[in-house]
Amino acid sequence: MTKISFGIRVPNSGPLSGVENIARTARKAEELGFDSVFVHDHVVWSTEMHRHHISSGAHEALADDQSADFYEALTVIGYLAAVTSRVQLGIACLVMPTRNPIYAAKQLATLDHLSGGRLIAGVGLGSKASHSSNEFDVFEVDFKQRANLTDEYIDAMRAIWTQPLATYKGRHLSFEDAEIYPKPLQRPHPPIWVGGWTDYAARRTGRAGDGWVPGWLSPKEMARGAEIVRETAAEHGRDPGAITIAVEKLAVIKRDRDAALERAIPTVRTSSTTYERDVDDISFALDRHIFGSVDDVKRRVEEFVEAGVTHFELKLIYPSIDDLEEQMTLWADEILPLYQD
Protein backbone atom coordinates (compact mmCIF):
# COMPACT_ATOMS: atom_id res chain seq x y z
CA MET A 1 0.00 0.00 0.00
CA THR A 2 1.32 3.44 -0.95
CA LYS A 3 1.97 5.61 2.08
CA ILE A 4 -0.29 8.64 2.36
CA SER A 5 1.43 11.50 4.18
CA PHE A 6 0.23 14.78 5.67
CA GLY A 7 1.95 18.09 6.23
CA ILE A 8 1.02 21.38 7.93
CA ARG A 9 1.72 24.89 6.62
CA VAL A 10 3.29 27.00 9.37
CA PRO A 11 2.51 30.74 9.63
CA ASN A 12 5.57 32.31 8.06
CA SER A 13 3.15 34.81 6.53
CA GLY A 14 -0.34 36.07 7.30
CA PRO A 15 -2.04 37.77 10.23
CA LEU A 16 -0.66 35.28 12.79
CA SER A 17 2.87 35.11 11.43
CA GLY A 18 5.73 35.31 13.91
CA VAL A 19 8.68 33.38 15.25
CA GLU A 20 6.85 31.97 18.28
CA ASN A 21 3.85 30.83 16.23
CA ILE A 22 6.05 29.27 13.55
CA ALA A 23 7.94 27.23 16.13
CA ARG A 24 4.84 26.32 18.14
CA THR A 25 3.04 25.05 15.03
CA ALA A 26 6.01 22.98 13.84
CA ARG A 27 6.57 21.39 17.24
CA LYS A 28 2.88 20.57 17.61
CA ALA A 29 2.76 19.01 14.15
CA GLU A 30 5.72 16.80 15.02
CA GLU A 31 4.21 15.87 18.39
CA LEU A 32 0.90 14.89 16.77
CA GLY A 33 2.50 12.62 14.17
CA PHE A 34 2.27 14.70 11.01
CA ASP A 35 4.87 13.82 8.40
CA SER A 36 6.01 17.29 7.41
CA VAL A 37 5.73 21.03 7.93
CA PHE A 38 5.84 23.54 5.11
CA VAL A 39 6.64 27.18 4.54
CA HIS A 40 5.88 29.19 1.43
CA ASP A 41 7.84 31.87 -0.34
CA HIS A 42 7.66 35.48 -1.42
CA VAL A 43 10.35 38.07 -0.80
CA VAL A 44 8.33 41.10 -1.87
CA TRP A 45 4.90 41.27 -0.26
CA SER A 46 2.37 44.09 -0.05
CA THR A 47 -0.12 45.28 2.53
CA GLU A 48 -2.87 44.65 -0.01
CA MET A 49 -1.77 41.06 -0.56
CA HIS A 50 -1.46 40.58 3.20
CA ARG A 51 -5.17 41.38 3.52
CA HIS A 52 -6.35 39.49 0.45
CA HIS A 53 -4.14 36.42 0.07
CA ILE A 54 -4.27 34.59 3.38
CA SER A 55 -2.20 31.42 3.25
CA SER A 56 -1.79 31.16 7.03
CA GLY A 57 -4.41 32.24 9.55
CA ALA A 58 -7.89 33.50 8.77
CA HIS A 59 -9.82 36.58 7.71
CA GLU A 60 -10.96 37.08 11.31
CA ALA A 61 -7.36 37.47 12.47
CA LEU A 62 -6.69 40.50 10.28
CA ALA A 63 -6.20 43.82 12.08
CA ASP A 64 -5.71 47.36 10.81
CA ASP A 65 -2.34 47.80 12.52
CA GLN A 66 -0.67 44.70 11.04
CA SER A 67 2.34 44.98 8.77
CA ALA A 68 2.74 42.65 5.80
CA ASP A 69 5.18 40.33 7.59
CA PHE A 70 6.46 37.47 5.45
CA TYR A 71 9.36 35.56 7.02
CA GLU A 72 11.88 34.40 4.43
CA ALA A 73 11.36 30.76 3.55
CA LEU A 74 14.86 29.32 3.60
CA THR A 75 15.81 31.13 6.79
CA VAL A 76 12.70 29.71 8.48
CA ILE A 77 13.57 26.21 7.27
CA GLY A 78 16.97 26.54 8.93
CA TYR A 79 15.30 27.61 12.17
CA LEU A 80 12.82 24.73 12.01
CA ALA A 81 15.66 22.29 11.46
CA ALA A 82 16.85 23.20 14.96
CA VAL A 83 13.47 23.10 16.73
CA THR A 84 12.25 19.79 15.24
CA SER A 85 13.88 16.40 14.87
CA ARG A 86 11.65 14.12 12.78
CA VAL A 87 9.27 15.89 10.40
CA GLN A 88 10.28 16.66 6.85
CA LEU A 89 10.75 20.36 6.14
CA GLY A 90 9.30 21.60 2.88
CA ILE A 91 9.05 24.77 0.82
CA ALA A 92 5.98 25.04 -1.38
CA CYS A 93 7.26 26.71 -3.31
CA LEU A 94 10.30 28.91 -3.91
CA VAL A 95 9.53 31.61 -6.47
CA MET A 96 12.33 30.20 -8.56
CA PRO A 97 12.75 32.91 -11.22
CA THR A 98 13.53 35.49 -8.51
CA ARG A 99 16.24 33.32 -6.92
CA ASN A 100 19.84 33.02 -8.03
CA PRO A 101 19.96 29.25 -8.67
CA ILE A 102 23.67 28.93 -7.88
CA TYR A 103 23.20 30.52 -4.48
CA ALA A 104 19.88 28.72 -3.93
CA ALA A 105 21.51 25.36 -4.65
CA LYS A 106 24.13 26.01 -1.98
CA GLN A 107 21.51 27.22 0.51
CA LEU A 108 19.31 24.18 -0.06
CA ALA A 109 22.24 21.77 0.21
CA THR A 110 23.22 23.43 3.49
CA LEU A 111 19.67 23.18 4.77
CA ASP A 112 19.59 19.51 3.87
CA HIS A 113 22.59 18.99 6.16
CA LEU A 114 21.21 21.19 8.94
CA SER A 115 17.96 19.21 8.91
CA GLY A 116 19.62 15.79 8.76
CA GLY A 117 18.29 15.09 5.28
CA ARG A 118 14.70 16.17 5.90
CA LEU A 119 14.39 18.83 3.18
CA ILE A 120 11.76 18.94 0.42
CA ALA A 121 12.72 21.57 -2.17
CA GLY A 122 9.59 22.90 -3.80
CA VAL A 123 9.99 25.21 -6.79
CA GLY A 124 7.46 27.25 -8.73
CA LEU A 125 7.14 29.90 -11.41
CA GLY A 126 5.58 32.58 -9.28
CA SER A 127 1.85 33.19 -9.13
CA LYS A 128 -0.69 35.93 -9.55
CA ALA A 129 0.24 36.95 -6.01
CA SER A 130 3.86 37.57 -6.98
CA HIS A 131 2.73 39.55 -10.01
CA SER A 132 0.25 41.65 -8.04
CA SER A 133 2.80 42.50 -5.35
CA ASN A 134 5.32 43.63 -8.01
CA GLU A 135 7.81 40.97 -6.96
CA PHE A 136 9.05 40.38 -10.49
CA ASP A 137 9.40 44.10 -11.13
CA VAL A 138 11.51 44.58 -8.00
CA PHE A 139 13.83 41.75 -9.05
CA GLU A 140 13.85 43.00 -12.67
CA VAL A 141 12.74 39.60 -13.93
CA ASP A 142 10.51 39.28 -16.98
CA PHE A 143 7.27 37.69 -15.76
CA LYS A 144 6.71 36.22 -19.23
CA GLN A 145 10.02 34.33 -19.01
CA ARG A 146 9.30 32.70 -15.66
CA ALA A 147 8.65 29.22 -17.10
CA ASN A 148 11.87 29.17 -19.12
CA LEU A 149 13.85 30.50 -16.17
CA THR A 150 12.41 27.88 -13.83
CA ASP A 151 13.25 25.03 -16.22
CA GLU A 152 16.83 26.22 -16.53
CA TYR A 153 17.26 26.89 -12.83
CA ILE A 154 16.06 23.41 -11.87
CA ASP A 155 18.60 21.84 -14.22
CA ALA A 156 21.35 24.17 -13.00
CA MET A 157 20.73 23.31 -9.35
CA ARG A 158 20.74 19.62 -10.13
CA ALA A 159 24.10 20.03 -11.90
CA ILE A 160 25.54 21.76 -8.84
CA TRP A 161 24.22 19.07 -6.52
CA THR A 162 25.46 16.10 -8.53
CA GLN A 163 28.67 17.14 -10.33
CA PRO A 164 32.02 17.58 -8.52
CA LEU A 165 32.87 20.34 -11.01
CA ALA A 166 29.47 21.61 -12.02
CA THR A 167 28.87 22.77 -15.57
CA TYR A 168 25.65 24.08 -17.05
CA LYS A 169 24.93 25.88 -20.29
CA GLY A 170 21.55 27.46 -20.91
CA ARG A 171 19.96 30.45 -22.56
CA HIS A 172 19.68 32.50 -19.38
CA LEU A 173 22.46 30.99 -17.26
CA SER A 174 25.79 29.32 -17.90
CA PHE A 175 28.75 28.31 -15.75
CA GLU A 176 31.66 25.92 -16.07
CA ASP A 177 33.69 23.86 -13.59
CA ALA A 178 32.06 25.41 -10.52
CA GLU A 179 33.28 23.59 -7.42
CA ILE A 180 30.43 24.08 -4.95
CA TYR A 181 30.14 22.16 -1.69
CA PRO A 182 28.66 20.70 0.41
CA LYS A 183 26.69 18.40 -1.81
CA PRO A 184 23.26 17.60 -0.32
CA LEU A 185 22.98 14.95 2.38
CA GLN A 186 20.15 13.26 0.47
CA ARG A 187 21.41 11.56 -2.66
CA PRO A 188 21.39 12.46 -5.39
CA HIS A 189 19.70 15.59 -3.97
CA PRO A 190 16.63 16.67 -1.97
CA PRO A 191 13.36 15.85 -3.70
CA ILE A 192 12.33 18.63 -6.07
CA TRP A 193 8.60 19.22 -5.95
CA VAL A 194 7.16 21.32 -8.75
CA GLY A 195 4.32 23.71 -8.01
CA GLY A 196 1.61 24.76 -10.45
CA TRP A 197 -1.80 23.51 -11.49
CA THR A 198 -1.40 23.63 -15.30
CA ASP A 199 -0.63 20.86 -17.76
CA TYR A 200 2.73 22.56 -18.28
CA ALA A 201 3.51 22.17 -14.57
CA ALA A 202 2.55 18.50 -14.72
CA ARG A 203 4.83 17.98 -17.70
CA ARG A 204 7.64 19.91 -15.97
CA THR A 205 7.26 17.49 -13.06
CA GLY A 206 7.40 14.45 -15.31
CA ARG A 207 10.55 15.75 -16.97
CA ALA A 208 12.47 17.12 -14.01
CA GLY A 209 10.58 16.82 -10.73
CA ASP A 210 10.37 14.33 -7.90
CA GLY A 211 6.94 15.55 -6.87
CA TRP A 212 4.02 17.65 -8.10
CA VAL A 213 2.23 19.96 -5.64
CA PRO A 214 -0.58 21.97 -7.25
CA GLY A 215 -3.36 23.88 -5.54
CA TRP A 216 -6.93 24.58 -6.62
CA LEU A 217 -7.51 21.31 -8.50
CA SER A 218 -10.47 19.01 -7.95
CA PRO A 219 -10.03 15.25 -7.56
CA LYS A 220 -10.98 14.78 -11.20
CA GLU A 221 -8.45 17.40 -12.30
CA MET A 222 -5.80 15.85 -10.07
CA ALA A 223 -6.32 12.44 -11.66
CA ARG A 224 -5.87 13.94 -15.11
CA GLY A 225 -2.77 15.87 -14.08
CA ALA A 226 -1.24 12.83 -12.40
CA GLU A 227 -1.64 10.90 -15.63
CA ILE A 228 0.19 13.67 -17.51
CA VAL A 229 3.00 13.47 -14.93
CA ARG A 230 3.29 9.72 -15.37
CA GLU A 231 3.17 9.82 -19.17
CA THR A 232 5.81 12.54 -19.36
CA ALA A 233 8.08 10.71 -16.91
CA ALA A 234 7.89 7.56 -19.01
CA GLU A 235 8.67 9.56 -22.17
CA HIS A 236 11.88 10.78 -20.49
CA GLY A 237 12.92 7.34 -19.27
CA ARG A 238 12.05 8.08 -15.65
CA ASP A 239 10.13 5.94 -13.15
CA PRO A 240 6.59 7.37 -12.94
CA GLY A 241 5.98 5.54 -9.67
CA ALA A 242 8.84 7.35 -7.96
CA ILE A 243 7.16 10.77 -8.34
CA THR A 244 5.07 12.03 -5.42
CA ILE A 245 1.64 13.38 -6.30
CA ALA A 246 0.88 15.99 -3.65
CA VAL A 247 -1.79 18.64 -3.17
CA GLU A 248 -1.80 21.97 -1.38
CA LYS A 249 -5.24 22.40 0.20
CA LEU A 250 -7.03 24.97 2.27
CA ALA A 251 -8.67 22.99 5.03
CA VAL A 252 -10.98 23.24 8.02
CA ILE A 253 -11.98 20.28 10.17
CA LYS A 254 -14.61 20.55 12.91
CA ARG A 255 -17.01 18.18 14.62
CA ASP A 256 -19.86 20.13 13.00
CA ARG A 257 -20.09 20.80 9.27
CA ASP A 258 -21.76 24.19 9.63
CA ALA A 259 -19.08 25.34 12.05
CA ALA A 260 -16.39 24.30 9.56
CA LEU A 261 -18.01 26.18 6.69
CA GLU A 262 -18.55 29.22 8.89
CA ARG A 263 -14.82 29.19 9.59
CA ALA A 264 -13.74 28.58 5.98
CA ILE A 265 -15.95 30.76 3.82
CA PRO A 266 -14.93 34.29 4.97
CA THR A 267 -11.25 33.57 4.31
CA VAL A 268 -11.97 31.95 0.95
CA ARG A 269 -14.05 34.96 -0.06
CA THR A 270 -11.34 37.37 1.14
CA SER A 271 -8.83 35.59 -1.09
CA SER A 272 -11.23 35.07 -3.98
CA THR A 273 -9.28 37.02 -6.61
CA THR A 274 -5.69 36.51 -5.49
CA TYR A 275 -5.06 32.88 -6.42
CA GLU A 276 -4.04 31.56 -9.82
CA ARG A 277 -7.65 30.59 -10.43
CA ASP A 278 -10.34 33.10 -9.51
CA VAL A 279 -13.11 31.84 -7.24
CA ASP A 280 -16.33 32.69 -9.06
CA ASP A 281 -18.50 31.13 -6.39
CA ILE A 282 -17.97 29.20 -3.19
CA SER A 283 -18.85 25.88 -4.82
CA PHE A 284 -15.64 26.17 -6.88
CA ALA A 285 -13.59 26.24 -3.69
CA LEU A 286 -15.64 23.52 -2.01
CA ASP A 287 -14.88 21.18 -4.90
CA ARG A 288 -11.15 21.81 -4.62
CA HIS A 289 -10.41 22.09 -0.91
CA ILE A 290 -11.23 20.21 2.28
CA PHE A 291 -13.82 21.75 4.58
CA GLY A 292 -16.32 20.07 6.86
CA SER A 293 -17.05 17.63 9.62
CA VAL A 294 -14.82 14.66 10.37
CA ASP A 295 -16.91 12.49 8.04
CA ASP A 296 -16.78 15.15 5.32
CA VAL A 297 -13.01 15.36 5.61
CA LYS A 298 -12.60 11.58 5.54
CA ARG A 299 -14.64 11.46 2.33
CA ARG A 300 -12.78 14.36 0.70
CA VAL A 301 -9.34 12.99 1.56
CA GLU A 302 -10.27 9.62 0.12
CA GLU A 303 -11.51 11.27 -3.10
CA PHE A 304 -8.08 12.80 -3.60
CA VAL A 305 -6.32 9.55 -2.66
CA GLU A 306 -8.38 7.71 -5.25
CA ALA A 307 -7.25 10.35 -7.77
CA GLY A 308 -3.64 9.40 -7.07
CA VAL A 309 -2.66 11.87 -4.35
CA THR A 310 -0.11 10.57 -1.85
CA HIS A 311 0.70 13.74 0.10
CA PHE A 312 -1.48 16.53 1.53
CA GLU A 313 0.00 19.91 2.45
CA LEU A 314 -2.72 21.41 4.64
CA LYS A 315 -3.25 25.15 4.82
CA LEU A 316 -5.62 25.10 7.76
CA ILE A 317 -7.78 28.20 8.24
CA TYR A 318 -7.64 29.43 11.85
CA PRO A 319 -8.33 32.69 13.71
CA SER A 320 -5.92 31.80 16.52
CA ILE A 321 -3.07 29.38 17.17
CA ASP A 322 -5.24 27.65 19.76
CA ASP A 323 -7.83 26.97 17.05
CA LEU A 324 -5.08 25.72 14.74
CA GLU A 325 -3.90 23.27 17.39
CA GLU A 326 -7.45 22.08 17.99
CA GLN A 327 -7.89 21.36 14.28
CA MET A 328 -4.49 19.68 14.02
CA THR A 329 -5.35 17.49 17.01
CA LEU A 330 -8.71 16.52 15.53
CA TRP A 331 -7.02 15.69 12.22
CA ALA A 332 -4.37 13.64 14.03
CA ASP A 333 -6.99 11.75 16.04
CA GLU A 334 -9.46 11.08 13.22
CA ILE A 335 -7.65 11.17 9.87
CA LEU A 336 -4.01 10.18 10.35
CA PRO A 337 -4.78 6.72 11.82
CA LEU A 338 -6.70 5.81 8.65
CA TYR A 339 -3.48 6.00 6.62
CA GLN A 340 -0.88 4.74 9.07
CA ASP A 341 0.55 1.24 8.89
Automatic annotation (TrEMBL):
<dbReference type="InterPro" id="IPR050172">
    <property type="entry name" value="SsuD_RutA_monooxygenase"/>
</dbReference>
<dbReference type="InterPro" id="IPR011251">
    <property type="entry name" value="Luciferase-like_dom"/>
</dbReference>
<protein>
    <recommendedName>
        <fullName>Luciferase-like domain-containing protein</fullName>
    </recommendedName>
</protein>
<dbReference type="GO" id="GO:0046306">
    <property type="term" value="P:alkanesulfonate catabolic process"/>
</dbReference>
<keyword id="KW-0288">FMN</keyword>
<dbReference type="InterPro" id="IPR019921">
    <property type="entry name" value="Lucif-like_OxRdtase_Rv2161c"/>
</dbReference>
<keyword id="KW-0503">Monooxygenase</keyword>
<keyword id="KW-0285">Flavoprotein</keyword>
<keyword id="KW-0560">Oxidoreductase</keyword>
<dbReference type="InterPro" id="IPR036661">
    <property type="entry name" value="Luciferase-like_sf"/>
</dbReference>
<dbReference type="Pfam" id="PF00296">
    <property type="entry name" value="Bac_luciferase"/>
</dbReference>
<feature type="domain" description="Luciferase-like">
    <location>
        <begin position="18"/>
        <end position="310"/>
    </location>
</feature>
<dbReference type="GO" id="GO:0008726">
    <property type="term" value="F:alkanesulfonate monooxygenase activity"/>
</dbReference>
